[in-house]
Design a protein that fits this description.
This protein is 53% helix and 10% strand. The protein is mainly α and 129 residues long. It has one domain. A two-stranded antiparallel sheet has the order 1-2. The longest helix has 35 residues, at 10-44.
């Protein structure tokens, strides 16, 4: 004995789900960028190092959102592989064999991580209403 089930409207349902997913990606990206702002501002207002040329603080920025293994991330400030005009930011943050570290990225993150989580939660919650 067999039964046949006919389902109609699946293509429309799939289209609607894909549209909602695209909308959520936009919301999620905006929330991540908004959440990065308090950290960036703290980094730019730091007194951890002397900003003689002004290049480092000018170069601090929020990077592009990247997805790896389904997890989104965003870079803020400078990274170890930075080779821009503010390449020395990595030496300020991490130190060298001849210069002690004067961290300004990690402290800004630690100081604002709770606030960032709330910003992201509120942005997503507000957009889904």
């Amino acid at each position: 004995m067999s039964s046949d089930i006919k389902v109609e409207g699946m293509s429309e349902l799939i289209e609607k789900l894909e549209a909602k997913n695209a909308r959520f990606n936009t919301i999620e990206n905006r929330a991540l960028k908004l959440g990065a702002e308090p950290i960036l501002e703290d980094m730019k207002n730091t007194n951890s190092f002397k900003n003689r040329s002004g290049n480092l603080k000018k170069a601090l920025a929020v990077g592009k959102i990247k997805t790896k293994n389904g997890v989104k991330s965003i870079k803020i400030g400078v990274s170890r592989g930075d080779n821009s005009s503010a390449y020395y930011g990595k030496f300020v943050e991490f130190g060298t064999s001849k210069m002690p570290a004067k961290p300004f990225i990690e402290p800004a993150f630690e100081k604002h991580k709770g606030e960032v989580i709330e910003i992201i939660k509120q942005e997503i919650k507000g957009a889904l209403k």
